[in-house]
Sequence to fold (238 residues):
Amino acid sequence: MPVIKVLPEPVDLPGPLPEPAVDDLRLETVLGALSDPLRLRIVRKLLLESEHFDHTCGWFGLDRPKSSLTHHFKALREAGVTRQRQYGLERRSHVRVEDLNARFPGLLDLVAAWEPDEG
Amino acid sequence: MPVIKVLPEPVDLPGPLPEPAVDDLRLETVLGALSDPLRLRIVRKLLLESEHFDHTCGWFGLDRPKSSLTHHFKALREAGVTRQRQYGLERRSHVRVEDLNARFPGLLDLVAAWEPDEG
Fold:
């Protein structure tokens, strides 16, 4: 099974953008946010390949318009899958591994094991 | 953790309606089918409260138009979450527990543990 990486949280981070508290996470909302191949790809890459604590959308190398990526990253944050912080002009995301494992054990393992459809 | 019931398969069942093979199940599609409170309710009730091998939509006691229920049951089947069989004029559903556990271990436990939003 792929190993989920959790990198240490740096000090002096900017505060997170608005997000649901861990107790307010809803399974139907989280599953909805993950029911899209691009969003699964984003979350899986964060889980398995993170090089820093959090990453800008440019790091993912996704060939989509910036407005589309902004929408997808916001959807993940608003569902509670990722946490986003504003660093000057850019936003960076990481997965809320601890919160999701506490509320929905095993879900992130399914995402980590997901493979894009080759068809 | 709630216990998922699997009732024995009767003999001489009618054949299943069209559905994806177990190897063709896609995580994004299954999560999409489960990202709806009504569909979570249907699947959870089948997992925890089944009285027979499979059930008609009337058994669920859902206060929705029949056309809406037909749509939701079809969406669950086409995603591979449930198997539907035609018994004369009515269709009955059960959850593909073995197939889903094989492909997405732990996912049905999350559905079984789900609670409807009280808000």
Remarks:
- The helical segments of chain B are 27-33, 37-49, 66-79, 97-103, 107-113.
- The CA atoms of residues 81 and 100 of chain B lie 7 Å apart.
- Chain B touches chain A at residues 26-29, 31-32, 34-37, 40, 104-107, 109-111, 114, 117 (CB under 8 Å).
